[in-house]
Each structure stands twice: as structure tokens, then as C-alpha cells.
Amino acid sequence: MKKFTLISLLALFFSVLTANAELMDKFFYKIANDKTDGWTIQDGGNTQMTPTADYLQVYLAKNAGRMMNRFFNEDGWKKAPALDKLPENTYKFTFDLNMTQMATRSDMEFTLLPINACTATDSRISTHNYHWFNAQDKDPGSEVIEDYFFRWRVIAAPTEANGDFTILINENPIDRRMWADGKEPILPYDHTTFGFATPEDSANACLTIHCNVKYSFSVDINVVEKTATYTIADNEGNVLKTGVHNYKCEENRAGIFIFSLNGTSTHQFSNMGLSYKAEGPFANDPTVDMLAVVNKERDFYAQFGEGEKLHWILPGETEEAEGSGVNYEDANWTRDFEEDPEVKGAYIIECYPEPDGKGSGTLKVWTSRIDDDTNVSDEVAIDVVCEDVVLPEPSAAIVNVEAGYAKTYKLIADNSEVLLKPTITIHYVIKNAGGGIVTEADGVSGDEITLDEAGSIEMYSWDKTHVSEWYTRSGVVTVNNDVEYVEAVNKDFAWTKEVCDGKVDGYTQYTVVETGNSSHWERIYSDQKYGYKADGNCEVYDETHAEEYVWVKEGFAFFPGTAIGTEDAKWNTQEPNDIATGLLPLVPSEEDYSVYSEHGWLIMPLEGIVYYVVSDGAVKKNPDGAAGFVEMKIEDKYTSDDAAKPNFYIISKRNSYDRPDKGDCNSSDVVVCGEKFWLYRFDTAINNVRVLTYKGFDPAQGINNAIVEKVSVKDNAMYNVAGQRINKANGLVIMKGKKFLAR
């Protein structure tokens, strides 16, 4: 809704005709620097995102490239003019990049895609970016299946930390692997020239980038001529490189920002968004974000530009609030609720409940030009509900079990549905079996606490982040640690090389030969050696600089590293003759074992059970939607017959091939007996399986193979193996203290 009358509109029209209008970039979609929401991060646990007023800083702690994606799609075009109304048929995408810390890696890559290229749940977001361009690998002249607007990648990493790096701009691709310039590519593929006819052609498409310099990337997309004209400029505005990509996308609107992070490097992004040329200066829409939940009060942080004035109408009111409008120069609130003379264009709007204010309703915010009150922005309308927010009750999940009463619990407090996702402190009291207090402390979600003896944990969620509690405490939750466990099974699958080289009853020796250097296992079985430095970076071990490494990891030396990719890169494994019994107490969960590939299930020397297939009928998505997993379970006989006393199996793993350049690869999963375990195929080995059952449990009882679908739920309450009440029989269920298998 515009804040002017017809008369003022005519005056504005007249002023535009008579004034010296200036063509300026008018953003219709802006990616905020000071917020982290909206991004999809591959391996987000190793990624640190730090929002600031000037840039969004992203640091990837893991020594590997990972994907960072922004899917704005239709949301980014809500305030855009129709494509046929764009001035000169063109809009622009921009982003600025400053590499303040650059490791000696070449993972970094950028791609701008149309809005229909994929969805935020598409599994391809976890792949390297060159897969986005889906021309046929073996036919360089094939039709482009999926195109892009702009794309570059690092082809020459710094030879030392924070050195120069070189990017290659993919203007006229021929093949998804070959960053060609319209010339006939070199076949077979030669990565040193990236498919260019000569190294000189490759060099002409490259640009050297320096660390600690901000570069501006812009792409002008002409929707009629279907051209994407890119410009790369330095911090002084000097154009360093420009060029044109004739895109073939049917969709003309950009909607996906993809950036492959360079491992252990620091990236600073700013000025990200979509714009078009318009006659200005003009009043821009303010950015208004909820800043604080203070009991029933709601505070909003508004930011606006130089030469503008901020206006607002509080919820439940019809007139501008007292204090509105505020000039850019006078708005100097920081997010820490303090005035800062160096900050401008930032103001906090407070919405109070009754009796001081109307409370719930719609907050309306807009800007006007200081020199022209009739030049106003669109109105930003925000629904406001002023009520107390109660924090969710915490929970404690068992993540490790030992014989006796010893257990490790992980504290969990889910803040995902809480306004502003505050840090939730979990106050817990550990008591012994007699009720005496052993420990009283505060923790946060993810913390682990261990109880060695019988007892209990009493806990509640509360707000300890602020001076006063802005959020209402949750109720008290009690977790009783009163079940004693015994170790029923402890089976090791990390067989020695000598065992795998010999004959084992129930197994057949199978020799893996990796001539294609494709499985990554050959690294762990070779004599490769990597050194890890204090900053997390790793490199091929150099004995002349041994003192620089914090620790060193090396392969098993079955063969020299120089043999990788040849017939000599081989090792013996043991393949179970019957996969229904050869992996016990684990069982592949597919009843039709024909879905598993030949030589799929293998026991790798010194590593353990591996499903050595990348993709077949057995490889699925896990419950979280991630691809590439096979289902496994423990023998049904270990499922508890008492819903209050679940049994557990513990899977010890070596992740990421345990190879020398992958750091510490040991981990474990604790699973309730009766529930599935999802093994990541091909690159995860199960080296040990333990089963812990409650004291007095008799696995010889087996399972009652009864049909329970037709049993009355009203008269016969059913529970799953986790002790949760269910209304429909599915798989293993508990009824009247007995376990049944639903058919």
C-alpha cells in the first residue's frame, strides 16, 4: 500500500519529468548479510556462518570442498516487474566476495541457475558443481540438458596459504567436464587445459584473484536475447574481466545461488541479490526482522538506506507511531540495544501488549525520501502476536550403554519451532537411587552426561542467555536410569590381513582390484601418509617438515601408493556365502536378498563390513532423505519384550574409508533393538557390533509370529519397540508385555 494521495502522485510524476533522473540499481530481492537463514549447507556441522552488517562470513572447518546453496526461486521474484516490462529487457544478479583466508585447495566454484533447475531437497546439491551441466560426457557436441547463467571455478589453488588463486570462467561449454571456449576439446579429457584446444585458450578465459581483496561479480541477463553478460571488478571499481554466455535455459529467471566452499578457508559474501535499472533515487523497502521476544513484548530491527526516512504504524493502530519518521542520520541503534554514533539507518521498533499498547495485530513499516515525502517505498507488513512463549521440554537420548547401569545421555532441546530460535539452557539434576543429589548443572542441546549407577535425571528448559528470562520455563522432565544391562554380544569384524588372505568357514575369499582409482579404499591400503597441521589442514607427509605436523596418519601399506590405479592396487576380502547369517548378529533388512549385488557385502581387512556398491536396488534414502544407504537390523530375537526396557545394539564404524587424508574416522551409533540401522554404502565400514540387553532378558524366547492387524486396539494397547503407543501394527510391536511380528 502506498502512502500518498492522487495529488501527491501527480506531484511526484511532475518532479520525475523535471528533475535530472539517475538510473540506479533497484533491488527487488536482496540476500541479507546479517542473517544465516535460507541457506542449504552440505555438512553444516563443520561450517561456521557469522552474519555481520557488512558481510556474511562463512568458514568451512573441514579440509574438503562443501556446497553452499541459496534457493530463492519464486520468492525472489515476488516484487519484480514482469519480464516484458524490464528496462532494456535486462535484470542483474550481483554478489561481492572477499577471501580473507585461502587454503591451498581448489574446491571453490560458483554457479547461477534458473529457478526450475532443482528444488531445495534435490539430492544433487551435495555433488560437485560440474554435475549441474548435464551434456553427455562422451559426446562433446551433444545438446545441453541443463544450462546456467554464469559459472566459474578455481583451477589453480594457492601454492601457499593466502596466495593468489586462478578462476576459469565457463562462457561457452562443450562438455560438463570440459570448460571449453567453443574450440574442439582435447580427447581424452586433459584436466590441465580443461578441454581447451590449447593452453593459451584456457589462459585467456582465466582470471587471477588475490586474497583479502573484495571482488564484485555481476551478471546482466537479457531475457530477449538470452545473453548473460558478466563483469568482474575489483574493490576500486576497475573492470578486470567481462564476457557473454549465450544461455539455452527456457526459464529466464535466476533462482539458485550455488557456491562450493574451499575447505579451511574463510569467505565473505555481500551485496547479494537481484535488481534492475530504474530512475532514482527512490525510497527502498526497509528490511525489518524480529529482534527480540521479551515476555509478551516484540521488538523489530529495521534497516534502511541513506537519504531515507523510516515510518511505522504499530499493531492495532491507524496512525503513525510517536517518533515516526526517523531520518537515516538519526537512526543509530545496534542489535545490542545500544546507540552507536557510527551506525546509521538502523532502528528498533517496540511492540508492547496491553495496557501500554494494542499488542497483537499488523506492524506496518515503510520509507520515504528525506527530500521528497511523496517518494515512498512499498509497505512491509508483519503479523505480530504478543504472548508469552513457553520453551519446549528437554529430553535425554541414550547414546551409549555399558554393562550395569552405566549410560551416556545426550541432552536435547529443540528450538526450531521457538520464535528467534533462542539458545536453550537445560538445567539438570542428577540424583542417585536414594534421591540424593549427585550433580546439579546447566547444559545445552548436544551435551552428554554419564550416569555410572542407578538414579535419575530431572531437567527443564530455561532462558539463561539474557539478564532476565525473556521466555517462560518448560515443565520439569524426569528420566529414570533404573534398568540394568548385560553384554549379550560383542563381535569384531575388523579381521586381520592374514585372516582375509586365508580361508574362513562360511565365507569365500574375493580379491578387490581397483584399477580405476575410484573407490578411495586403495588409499587406506596403500602406504600413503598424510600430516595434519594445527589449523586442520592436511597434506602429503613431508618428513623434512615433520615438526610442523600435529599428528600423522598413514595407510596399511599392502602396496605402494604408486600402484594406485593399476592392477597392483588389490587386496583380499571375505565374502559371506549366506548374507542372512554371515554378518550376524546384523542382518540386511531386505527379505529378498537378490536385490544385493554380487560381491556387494564384503569384510574388508582391518576395517570391517562394507556394502561395496555405489548404487543398486538395495541402495535407498534414509529417513532423513539422504541418498546412498542400505538398511540393516539386529536379529529379531534381541528385541525387548518389555516396552519400558528397550535393548540396544552399538555399531562401531570407520567412516570415509578411514583413509589417511580424512582425519579421525571412528564413530558409533546406538540403536534400539528392533529398529533399523542405515549403513552408508561403499565408504563406511562396521568394525564391531555389541548387543546390550536388560538383565534377565531371554533372547531364546523368540518372537510371537502372530497376525495382529485385526486385534482390537481398544482392548489390546500396542507399542513400538521404543515404548511409544501406536494405533496400527507395523513390524515388531509390543502387546501385553510380549513382542509380536506383524505380517
Low-confidence regions: 1-20, 123-145, 174-193, 704-715
Number of distinct beta strands: 49
The CATH architecture of the largest domain would be Sandwich
- The number of distinct helices, counting runs of at least 4 residues, comes to 4
Helical amount:
under 10%
**Helix/strand class:** mainly beta
- The CATH topology of the largest domain is given as Jelly Rolls
Choose one word for the global shape. globular
Query: Beta-strand level of the residues, as a percent range?
Result: 35-45%
Radius of gyration: 31 Å
How many distinct folded domains?
Answer: 5
Structure summarized in a few sentences:
This protein is 4% helix and 40% strand. The chain is mainly β and 743 residues long.
Q: What does this protein structure show overall?
A:
- The protein has four helices and 49 strands.
- The protein is globular, with a radius of gyration of 31 Å.
- The protein is mostly beta strands.
- Strand 48 (732-735) and strand 49 form a beta hairpin.
- It folds into five domains: 31-266, Jelly Rolls, CATH 2.60.120; 287-384, Immunoglobulin-like (Sandwich), CATH 2.60.40; 395-480, Immunoglobulin-like (Sandwich), CATH 2.60.40; 491-694, no CATH class; 703-743, no CATH class.
- The strands form twelve sheets. Strands 1, 3, 4, 6, 11, 12, 13 and 15 form an eight-stranded antiparallel beta sheet that branches.
